[in-house]
């Protein structure tokens, strides 16, 4: 198996993993059960993967993790908007 295909498939699967959670939060307008800390740590780690991808010039790493960063930033924004005070 071509290693780029493996990287692309792995990247797609991990990148879309938070989309069901994001859809649930948007539909219910409720983010009470989400951990800000977990999302911030995840965004930090994914951002480091993007940086690593640039260093290694690996497009699958860059694209998949950049997409995941964006999804999780939207989720963090939803946490800020929908968490009860």
What does this protein structure show overall?
There is one protein chain. The chain is mainly α and 85 residues long. It has one domain: Monooxygenase, CATH 1.20.1280. Helix content is 80%, strand content 0%. The model has no long low-confidence stretch (mean pLDDT 90). Its main location: membrane. It comes from Chryseobacterium cheonjiense. GO terms for molecular function: sugar transmembrane transporter activity.
CATH class, named: Mainly Alpha
How many discrete domains? 1
What percent strand?
under 5%
Helical/strand content category? mainly alpha
Please count the helical segments: 4
The biggest beta sheet reads: none
Could you tell me the mean pLDDT?
90
Helix content: over 70%
Give the strand tally.
0
Q: Uncertain spans, ≥5 residues at pLDDT below 50? A: none
Rg of Cα set? 14 Å
In N-to-C order, the SSE pattern is HHHH
At CATH level 2, the architecture is: Up-down Bundle
Give the distance, in angstroms, between the N- and C-terminal Cα atoms. 51 Å
* CATH T-level fold name: Monooxygenase
Shape: elongated
Protein name: SemiSWEET transporter
Pfam families: PQ-loop
Organism: Chryseobacterium cheonjiense
Subcellular location: Membrane
């Amino acid at each position: 198996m071509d290693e780029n295909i493996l990287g692309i498939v792995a990247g797609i699967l991990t990148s879309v993993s938070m989309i069901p959670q994001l859809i649930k939060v948007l539909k219910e307008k409720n983010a009470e059960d989400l951990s800000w800390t977990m999302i911030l740590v995840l965004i930090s780690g994914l951002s480091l993967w993007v940086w690593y991808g640039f260093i290694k010039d690996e497009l699958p790493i860059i694209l998949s993790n950049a997409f995941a960063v964006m999804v999780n930033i939207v989720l963090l924004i939803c946490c800020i908007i929908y968490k009860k005070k």
